[in-house]
Amino acid sequence: MTFTLTPTYDDNPRLQELVGALRDYLDGELAEYEAGLGLARDARYGREVLQPVWQRSRELGFYGIHLPPEHGGQGLTFTELAALKEEVGASPRMFATSVLGDMGGPLRIGSIFQYATAHQLEKYLLPVLRAERACCFSLTENDAGSDVRGIRTTATPDGDGWRLTGHKVFSSAGPFADFSILVARMADADGTPTETFSTFLVDLDAPGCTVTDGDTPMSGDHIEADIILDDCYVGPEQLLGEIGQGLRIGLGRVTVNRLLHCPTALGGARRALHLSVQYAKTRQVNGAPLGMLQSIQHRLADMAADYYAARSMTYDALAALDAGHRPRTEAFLCKLFVAEKAFTIADHAVQIHGKAGVVRGGEVEGLFQRLRMFRILTGSSEIQRNGIARELLLT
Q1: Hey, which CATH number is domain 253-394, 3.20.20.100, 3.30.420.10, 1.20.140.10, 3.40.50.1240?
Q2: Tens of each residue's pLDDT in the chain, 395 residues
Q3: What is the 3-state secondary structure (H, E, C) of the chain?
Q4: Which CATH architecture describes the domain 135-246?
């Protein structure tokens, strides 16, 4: 893998064409749409603003592009999907994450098709692929983050169905979603919680289900929701998979998901490096470009080295995944290294930009916030280190 800030994918004509079309859409039509809205990065907006992006992205073939042809996708390899996710991460567009279906769309449901019944496909999943419905994933609770077995939301038997009671937090895309893929702890008939977990498809407009604004993350994006359940009934047709498969469904693709989050962060790091290079070329200091200072040159060199190393190891692991291997240790390594180095790159970018890098609402400041969050989200760096050590010591 060669070093470049504008990957070309000459060895894969299909991917080269897709990346080119995606860049054109992000920098052309989507940019114009966002400009017409005039929204600040931390603005609140409703589903009516996002749905046109979902629908247009579907028309262009990007929405759910990773899925097999029978579901309207192009059956991309993991490496090809990662390349597209990197472009999304490198884009300054507010709604870039909606284009491939990461904001309540196909990227949220791709892993659950194998568990869905015909009824669930027709009512829940296929409408998501058609950009008609949206979903969120509800696993996290205030006292159950990395420790998923700390979940307190319970499903108590009621006839053929169950009554759900609990409080989910950080349900990304929850403000725009129609239903939630929700993991709960099963309870006995008398309401006593057990150690069994199951997954349900919960309609967010059902009696006993309330969606409220969640905590606003440091990025300023208003995309999180709390899902509050108070004796909310779900029928047997809403059980996803079998009783007891909740954690398998919720965490079953953790290796794949861990790897596929890395390209988005790599895209952000690439954008931060690109902006820093351009700023160093154009910013004048004492009558000369900022980039003439050796201290700035060394920062840029370190940023480039970190980006190249992080990207190379990520795509190496993705190639192993495409070859049929299960790169569990590599996934831990990639998430740790990419998270730490991407944030370091963003930190250098702020330093290079000086005052321009710390202005609220600026692009560099936004990248810094997003990449700082990546060290926590989808498993903190400490969790990744635990996983690496466990693999080393027990394998």
Answers
A1: 1.20.140.10
A2: 789 999 999 999 999 999 999 999 999 999 999 999 999 988 999 999 999 999 999 999 999 999 999 888 999 999 999 999 999 999 999 999 999 999 999 998 877 889 999 999 999 999 999 999 999 999 999 988 778 889 999 999 999 999 999 999 999 999 999 999 999 999 999 989 999 999 999 999 999 999 999 999 999 899 999 999 999 999 999 999 999 999 888 876 677 888 999 999 999 999 999 999 999 999 999 999 999 999 999 999 999 999 999 999 999 999 999 999 999 999 999 999 999 999 999 999 999 999 999 999 999 999 999 999 999 988 899 999 999 999 999 87
A3: CCCCCCCCCCCCHHHHHHHHHHHHHHHCHHHHHHHHHCCCCCCCCCHHHHHHHHHHHHHCCCCCCCCCHHHCCCCCCHHHHHHHHHHHHHCCCCCHHHHCCCCCCHHHHHHHHHHCCHHHHHHHHHHHHCCCCCEEEECCECCECCCHHHCCCEEEEECCEEEEEEEEEEEECHHHCCEEEEEEEEECCCCCEEEEEEEEEEECCCCCEEEEECCCCCCCCCCEEEEEEEEEEECHHHEECCCCCHHHHHHCCHHHHHHHHHHHHHHHHHHHHHHHHHHHHHCEECCEEHHHCHHHHHHHHHHHHHHHHHHHHHHHHHHHHHCCCCCHHHHHHHHHHHHHHHHHHHHHHHHHHHHHHCCCCCHHHHHHHHHHHCCCCCCCHHHHHHHHHHHHHHC
A4: Beta Barrel (2.40)
Whole-structure pTM value: 0.95
* 13-103: CATH, from 3.40.50.1100, 3.30.830.10, 3.50.50.60, 1.10.540.10: 1.10.540.10
